[in-house]
Specification:
The complex is a heterodimer. By secondary structure, chain A is of the alpha/beta class. Chain A contains 26 helices and 33 strands. The longest helix of chain A is centred in the middle third of the chain and has 19 residues. By secondary structure, chain B is of the alpha/beta class. Chain B is built from 18 helices and twelve strands. Chain B is 43% helix and 13% strand. Classes of the chains: A alpha/beta, B alpha/beta.
Chain lengths: 785, 431
């Protein structure tokens, strides 16, 4: 420990601290622009100059290491003069356009100029003008004359984003911050540069010129997208969500949010929002009042139940719904006598259900995962599925943790990998089994899974060595693994690897409330907190054996299902499809016959349980639009109208209290299967599809966020395959081919991609252009265009 | 043109001969004897460094830091990669000595770097050559090839266990890349911007490995020191100012060029060697150490000797040894305007005071030079300069401020006149 005195305050700080760290620890503010606690030290703005006794000149607090006995003055004459001098320099070329600047009112330069600058400028010469830049549809770089060259954005894209997308070109006052020539800023977490920019140079393009910062109310919320559960500040004006910013939470999202969290609010205000209940009569849609619509629903459900029995009804719920909604929907179904309820629409393998003993979750906290010395990620298109977690794992690698990957594509993870196995989906089980076999050998252990047919490759051995050799290790299964037709086998193998190596294991929750859905029993085999229930059909069975009636909570099956082709066919064959939805979606208009407008997360109170099992509650930040109502209220009234008891709630807190009263979260989280099994032989080598969900197609809200939909990540998907696949099909890279699954086919360009293993065609699912196709990881045919 | 007197680096070099730079000619002059001496006698590394220390050689790039001391900072027992780097990024206005070393005696530099590599236990070295000298870069590459073929460079040098690879790197001409950490950034393929120090290159240098960076002239002096002994080198100069030094004399003299003379030679002697003032004009002022060094008026300069201590006492710096001579026809405001423009162009743009301040200084001086000076401009220049100097990562801001301070101090009347009368006192004659 080192002793230091700051403005007369004595304190001790650990070796390696900077003067800035020391000042922060005693609450002394030192003005700064380029310094940011999560970025490398640049020491270029010079705003944090302070006086250090015995140093002949002022030193930058951000970069000066504390030495024992150091005496620092942050407000001495020397320090103040230095700071005022720097402030004057910063302002001489800064435009005086604060009244029309989006940053006005929340501008660090404005604030510090008041505190540390002079009221008049001595600069009488011409001011610099810098031409605006195009950084894409999310980040506006129109007014680069405002830039003060702190390089926070440059360091962010390189250090946190993972690859350099912004740089500072040219010298002296001709220095300019710009993206690479002709390129936009495409990182999945690019929006953070807007928060980092201390001035109005980089601003939010969708938010630009819409309102002033001081007119906005700040309300806390939680991101409804991926399973991380990023904490949000939602800013509203009138009754409209205007902007979303990160709420710092070191355990979850640190001080960042992904672009999906930040910009999908546009979807909340989309023209597709369903404002009134609607009923289809004779193939035409009519607006209706709530009473009529609900009576229609009750009539439909009672009719189907009378004619075909309760089992003819299926309930499909989105894991992006709140815990209270999911609790209510399963309660409504089961009280009515319907056991067919499931949230796992994109799952294709349910064999683990019988052996499952608790709610599937991450298996550790997010912090524990990020600080594990060795991590194996199985079947995850990380940067699409979990943009922020992927970044956090990159940071972990920088701090010395070993990242291992088993996946179906060699995607750029922008970090150093310890080892990787890139195999076709059909060989995924075998790949993980190789690791298990190596672990068994290292630990001289035994596994219930027959590994005789498995040959351990060098990379599998490296992965096993890494997991067994590390003090703390984690094995996690991503979306590709969870949607994979052999999920139960992958989970079994992960469990065995974890058991033998001492690692933790779990799943990267796909959606904001996947874990919540597991906990409150939105699955056909387990009730609230695992309570015994009469088993019903799972999502796959409900589609494979079409029901006569479907209740859809917050889901569009053509985008949210493992096999959209089959799902849509099942919907179309039903007598009634009741959709509780926030959006007048094209698909729903086609196959549903009644639409009940429900409130998205921003318009209702609720909660999400994130991947680490953390319950995060939130309130609505605005009133529901039109006649939309929170889904829990709709379900409550439906319960009343169906004559069911136990639906007398008057607030969402009562709903929450009820499900919380039935058990505890922590002991209910359990990935361990009662019995494990896996067929480790690679399956027959038919050409299979790798169909992941695109970054901005994951849920109903982001699908309607216009700016996100204008990004490169949201471009119409093209198909990719290894050169060998193209050769076998006799097509040139870039040629338009017909891809066929079942009855559906699409015409799409097929490009060669060296990142893909043989035997695979990669074409995104959940996109309007590909929803006619079948299963995400099912066989696919290539026909020449 | 180049003239050498009692040369160390240029000892015996016939600059008129086309092949004087080649390996044969260098060996004939006694070249590579120092290297042979070290390798034959297996001289301990410490002894090589001690010899350089004893010679009193001070860094010839401008700062004058003792070379032997710098070498001793290198962690010699460090097991991983480490590097020696030569700074031939000669961009200081007025300085043109290193390019003549590459042109006329490149093997002296190569031998010096090999010896440095030996002394500090490094396996590889780089020579970073200024972007605007291309013919010299090509010649240096040729010289490297000669040395490799002759077994002086590469694996198992002269059949011993000692191996050393040396590479030339051609820069793009940015002045800032002469700053040693910016040079390293540029050598790594990044934008040339100085790094914040500490850590210093001796612990975190090229690719984050321990690195020693010396000027071309410093390295080129080493073979003489090892071959003929530290004492002989020291005796060539004066105490605390060992050896000879190359001075690049430019401006209003009859024979501008490089002069290798013993440190301590009176300025008047150097001026005489350079043929005296052109057209018999009167000497007005001299910048004794490159554009960053404060200017000295004629009367002060004529009493100085050309060494670190004397020039420093007079209020300037010996710097890189670029002697810019100005006659009575020079308008000091015009001269300063040109220098201010240079720094305005060459600031790397990283630190606020330098990025913004260099442009401000230039614009104010430009106004004064064009008869648009305002009362208070001199105080403004002074104040802006004070806000820049010592407030930045590297010394470029200081270098930009020194000329402003010294010009306005020694020739204040010219500035005051221009501000008051709307025209300059001296009608500047371009020649």
């Amino acid at each position: 420990m080192l002793e230091i005195e700051i403005d007369g305050k004595k304190l001790t700080v650990p070796q390696g601290s900077t003067v800035m760290d020391a000042a922060h620890s005693v609450g002394t503010y030192i003005p700064h622009f380029c310094y940011h606690k999560k970025l490398s030290i640049a020491a270029n703005c010079r705003m944090c100059l302070v006086e250090v006794e015995k140093a002949p000149k002022p030193l930058p607090a951000c970069a000066t290491p504390v030495t024992d006995g150091m005496k620092v003055h942050t407000h001495s004459d020397m320090a103040k003069k230095a700071q005022a001098g720097v402030m004057e320099f910063l302002l001489i070329n800064h435009p005086l356009d604060c009244p029309i600047c989006d940053q006005g009112g929340e501008c660090q330069l404005q604030d510090l100029a008041v505190g540390y600058g002079n009221s008049a400028s001595r600069y009488q010469e011409e001011k610099r003008v810098v031409v605006g830049k195009d950084m894409g549809p999310l980040v506006s770089a129109e007014e680069m004359s405002r830039c003060i060259h702190c390089t926070r954005c440059v360091r962010f894209t390189e250090e946190i984003g993972g690859f350099q997308e912004i740089g500072m070109a040219n010298r002296s006052e001709f220095s300019e911050i710009l993206p690479f020539l002709g390129k936009t800023v495409d990182s999945e977490i690019s929006g953070n540069v807007i928060d980092l920019c201390p001035v109005g140079a980089l601003t939010s393009k969708p938010f630009r010129y819409s309102t002033r910062a001081w007119e906005l109310s700040r309300r806390k919320s939680v991101s409804p997208h991926d399973g991380l559960g990023a904490n949000l500040i939602v800013q509203v004006k009138g009754n409209q969500v205007m902007r979303v910013l990160p709420l710092e939470n070191e355990d979850i999202n640190e001080c960042w949010i992904a672009d999906r969290d930040r910009f999908s609010y546009e979807g909340l205000n989309s023209a597709e929002r369903l404002q009134k209940p609607m009923i289809k009569h004779d193939g035409k849609w009519h607006e209706a009042d709530w009473q009529t619509a609900l009576e229609y629903v009750v009539k439909g459900l009672n009719g189907v139940s009378r004619d075909h029995g309760k089992d003819a009804i299926g309930v499909l719920a989105s894991p992006h719904s709140t815990t209270e909604e999911l609790f209510m929907v399963q309660k409504l179904a089961r009280s009515f006598g319907v056991n067919n309820v499931d949230y796992r629409l994109r799952r294709s393998d349910f064999r683990a259900d019988a052996a499952q003993q608790g709610a599937l979750w991450l298996g550790s906290s997010i912090v524990e995962l990020a600080s594990a010395k060795s991590v194996l990620v199985v079947g995850s298109t990380q940067r699409q599925e979990q943009p922020l977690l992927a970044s956090r794992l990159r940071q972990a690698v920088k701090k010395g943790s070993e990242l291992n990957v088993i996946h179906v594509a060699d995607d750029a993870l922008l970090t150093k990998l310890n080892a990787k196995l890139i195999v076709s989906p059909q060989a995924l089980v075998n790949a993980l089994a190789q690791v298990l076999k190596a672990v068994v050998a290292i630990k001289s252990g035994e596994s219930a899974i027959d590994l005789a047919a498995v040959t351990v490759s060098a990379d599998a051995q490296r992965i096993a060595d890494s997991l067994c050799g590390a003090e703390t290790a984690s094995v996690v299964l991503g979306n590709v693994a969870q949607h994979h037709p052999a999920f139960s086998e992958l989970l079994s193998l992960a469990q065995e690897i974890a058991r033998l190596s001492g690692a933790r294991f779990g799943v990267l929750a796909e959606a904001a409330n996947s874990v919540g859905a597991e906990l409150v029993g939105a699955v056909p085999t387990r009730g609230v907190f695992g309570a015994a229930v009469s088993a019903g059909l799972n999502a796959q069975q409900m589609i494979a054996e079409p029901r006569k009636a479907y209740v859809l909570l917050n889901t569009e099956v053509e985008f949210d299902s493992y096999n959209p082709q089959a799902a849509v066919a099942a919907m179309k064959s039903a007598e009634t499809v009741i959709a509780l939805t926030a959006f007048k979606a094209e698909g729903l208009l086609d196959y549903a016959d009644v639409l009940l407008p429900i409130a998205p997360f921003s318009e209702t109170a609720g909660s999400f349980v994130n991947m680490e099992g953390r319950l995060q509650t939130f309130n609505g930040v605005v009133r529901p639009q039109g006649e939309a109502r929170p889904a829990w209220k709709v379900l409550r009234v439906l319960g009343n109208m169906l004559g069911l008891s136990g639906f007398e709630y008057t607030s969402v807190e009562e709903v929450r209290a009820e499900w919380q009263g039935k058990g505890e979260i922590a002991p209910s989280l359990n990935n361990v299967l009662a019995s494990v099994s896996a067929n480790v032989q690679p399956a027959a080598s038919a050409l299979v599809r790798v169909g992941e969900v695109p970054l901005y197609q994951a849920d109903a809200i982001c699908r309607r966020a216009s700016s996100l939909q204008a990004t490169r990540a949201a471009a119409v998907p093209v198909a990719h395959a290894a050169q060998s696949v193209l050769d076998a099909a006799g097509v040139q890279s870039g040629a338009v081919v017909v891809l066929k699954q079942g009855e559906g086919q699409v015409r799409v360009a097929l490009e060669a991609d060296a990142a893909l293993p043989a035997g695979v065609v990669r074409l995104a699912t959940a996109h309007p252009t590909t929803i006619v196709l079948g299963g995400m990881f099912d066989p696919i045919e290539i026909k020449q265009g | 043109m180049a003239v050498f007197v009692n040369g160390v680096i240029f000892d015996g070099v016939d600059t008129a001969a086309a092949d004087a730079w080649r390996l044969d000619a260098y060996v004939a002059r006694g070249g590579y004897q120092a290297l042979r001496k070290i390798l034959d006698s297996k001289l301990p590394q410490e002894d090589v460094i001690a010899e350089v220390k004893n010679s009193g050689l001070r860094g010839r790039g401008g700062a004058g830091f003792p070379t032997g001391l710098k070498w001793s900072f290198m962690p010699r027992s460090f097991p991983g990669d480490k590097y020696v780097v030569c700074n031939t990024d000669e961009g200081e206005p007025g300085t043109f000595k290193d390019r003549d070393i590459l042109r006329f005696n490149p093997h002296a530099l190569i031998e010096g770097m090999i010896i440095a590599g030996y002394a500090m236990g490094t396996k590889a070295g780089y020579n970073y050559i200024h972007g605007e000298v291309f013919a010299e870069y090509q010649r240096f590459e040729e010289a490297l090839e000669e040395a490799r073929k002759a077994g002086f460079l590469g694996q198992h040098i002269l059949g011993t266990d000692f191996s050393f690879e040396l590479y030339a790197h051609h820069g793009y001409g940015a002045y800032i890349c002469g700053e040693e950490t910016a040079l390293l950034e540029s050598l790594e393929g990044k934008k040339g911007q100085p790094r914040f120090k500490p850590p210093f290159p001796a612990s975190f240098g090229l690719y984050g490995k321990p690195t020693t960076i010396n000027n071309t002239e410093s390295f080129a002096s080493v073979p003489f020191i090892i071959r003929d002994g530290a004492q002989k080198f020291l005796e060539a100069g004066k105490p605390n100012n060992g050896g000879t030094k190359l001075f690049s004399v430019s401006g209003h003299v009859n024979r501008p060029g490089n002069y290798e003379i013993p440190l301590g030679t009176p300025f008047s002697t150097l001026l005489e060697m350079a043929g005296g003032m052109r057209d018999g004009k009167k000497l007005k002022a001299v910048i004794p150490g490159g554009s960053s060094a404060p200017i000295l008026p004629a009367e002060i300069m004529m009493s100085c000797t050309m060494d670190y201590d004397s020039i420093s006492k007079a209020g300037s710096m010996l710097g890189s040894g670029a002697v810019i001579v100005m006659n009575e026809d020079v308008c000091m405001i015009k001269a300063l305007e040109r220098l201010a423009y240079f720094y305005h162009e060459e600031s790397c743009g990283q630190c606020t005071p330098c990025r913004e301040g260099t442009g401000w200084l230039y614009r104010v001086i430009h106004r004064i030079a064009n008869g648009e000076g305002r009362p208070g401009d001199l105080e403004l220049l002074d104040s802006v300069g004070n806000n820049m100097a010592g407030r930045t990562i590297c010394a470029l801001a200081d270098a930009a401020v020194f000329p402003v301070r010294s010009f306005t101090k020694h020739f204040r009347h010219e500035f005051e006149y221009a501000i008051e009368h709307g025209k300059t006192l001296v009608d500047h004659k371009w020649c």
